Amino acid sequence: MKLKKFIWINTFSIFVISFLAHFLYEWFPNSLFALFFPVNESVWEHMKMLYSCIMFYGIMEYFIYKKLRYPVNNFLLSLFLRGYLSIPIYLIIYLPLDKIFGHHMIIAISVLFISILLSEIISYFVKQKENSSILNLLSIFFIIIGFVIFGYLTYHPIKTNLFYDEHHHKYGINIYTK
After folding, report:
1. Do the beta carbons of residue 35 and residue 55 sit within 8 Å?
2. Looking at the 3D structure of the chain, how many domains does it have?
3. Backbone angles phi, psi at 72, to 5 degrees
4. Which residues form the domain of 126?
5. Cβ 18 vs Cβ 85: under 8 Å
6. Average pLDDT over residues 129-156
7. What is the pTM of this model?
């Protein structure tokens, strides 16, 4: 199987996992799930979901490559870049559309798919480069930092529109405005 096929497999897999992840905290409200999955309907919490799904799928992807004995360069670097780049890609596309048309689920879902796809394409090119042990090692650190930042901001959100859940009128996990 060619690496290009994995762009589509990974994109669809992460996209499907995102639908399940969207509801995990609602179904099983606990502190562990709050760190990885959306605790409200804010844009920020959905970015946490996107990041977590990419990272969790990355674990499965690693074992798929191992099982197929498929050599991949810069796996951790590509995973780090996918997780971090998918967020600004999503926001750059979604926020202007949301401002113009308002919140529509079809727009949000379409932009989710596009951001996953674009980050997978970038990841493909990184996997084509010569392996860099240093960058792969640093990527582990930054992947963990991403989870720490998302977890911290779940419990200590910044009072901006990005963190505000308009449906439930709250920020973060339990901080209500009324």
Report:
1. no
2. 1
3. -135, 130
4. 3-176
5. no
6. 95
7. 0.92
